[in-house]
């Protein structure tokens, strides 16, 4: 797959258990302090390997959310190993986030976004094409292509973004 392509994969039925797990925990409220200008307040988490925020010494470590929710982390990794055709290091989780137009300037290579839950609307738009990512992963280079969600979310939506 070339870096410039946007690809939508087939429908997957792997998300029921993860949905139940997310509904039983409270994800961290994110907002103005998350350094993402224009993003609304939302609940989310980061799983996998991350650069330590206050003590970066040239290495990555397992995220605080991965340590806080080890069973969720294991399930996210299990799903990623099935649906993601490239190596990933981190997974961003968003609950009911309607993303404004942005690029993920610090990401390296491709990203895979998939959403699930009891919701409708809130499609991902990449290269002026709208994709329904509800259990159908969309792969694109988030550092190269501006992307956003349509502003028509109804219900409860979780999104996973696998990236490096």
Provide an overview of this structure.
This protein is of the alpha+beta class and 164 residues long. It contains three helices and eleven strands, in the order E-H-E-E-E-H-H-E-E-E-E-E-E-E. Helices cover 16% and strands 33% of the residues. Helix 1 (16-23) runs antiparallel to helix 3 (70-83). The protein is globular and about 40 Å long. The chain has helices at 16-23, 64-68, 70-83, and strands spanning 7-8, 28-30, 42-50, 61-62, 90-95, 111-120, 124-126, 129-131, 138-140, 147-149, 154-163. The longest helix has 14 residues, at 70-83. It has one domain: Double-stranded beta-helix. Strands 1, 2, 3, 4, 5, 6, 9 and 11 form an eight-stranded antiparallel sheet that branches. It has a three-stranded antiparallel sheet with strand order 8-7-10, with no helix packed on it.
Strand content: 25-35%
Q: Number of helix segments?
A: 3
Q: In total, how many beta strands? A: 11
* Regions with little confidence, pLDDT below 50 for 5+ residues: none
Return the CATH architecture: 4-Layer Sandwich
Oligomer: single chain
CATH topology: Double-stranded beta-helix
Element pattern in H and E? EHEEEHHEEEEEEE
* Class per helix and strand makeup: alpha+beta
How does the overall form come out from the CA principal axes? globular
Whole-angstrom Rg:
15 Å
Total number of domains: 1
